[in-house]
Amino acid sequence: MAQVNISDASGKEPRKIGFLANQPKDSNYAEPTAFKLVIGKIPETTYFCQSVSLPGISISEVQQRTMFNPIILPGGDVVHEPLSAKFIVSEGLNNWIEIYKWIQSCSTYKDFDDVVSLQNSLVSDATLYILSSKNNLEVKATFSGVFPKSLSSVEFDYSDTELMTIIASVDFAFSHYEIEVT
Predict the structure, then answer these.
(1) Domains of the chain listed by start with CATH number
(2) What is the pTM of this model?
(3) Are 133 and 30 within 8 A, CB to CB?
(4) pLDDT at 108
(5) What per-residue confidence (pLDDT) applies to 151?
């Protein structure tokens, strides 16, 4: 069976039915290594970034009461998963320390002298570039109001007989993000 065009009652563009109607526009797979994360406040971490996860999103439901069963509708709060990244720790711990200091600056770490003035921004913007198999920009995710929530520890161990790189992870909170397909 080939493709058949059927016009609906609205007179809009004809619908396609048949096996060709379900073909995706893009049949290439996303590659797990085709990305670049850029965060302005931590350039050294950006350079050593090994992995990043595009955060998931969920929305709560609202119940509309009726005299029968309640009707469940979309609405309520939007909840984002954190923006999580893993990076290779540099020899001088420079990239780990830049996140450590950023976290310190977001709170009164030791005493009230640590309070940062409002002129010094505690947040940054971040951009995740997702590339095609030919390293062309496919998707751009722009995050607003980014700040680090947690930074993993750095473990040193004499018992490791293999020379391995040290990987640390960081979770960022953000106010929202937008996705742009290029």
Answers:
(1) 29-53+72-181 (2.30.110)
(2) 0.77
(3) no
(4) 67
(5) 97
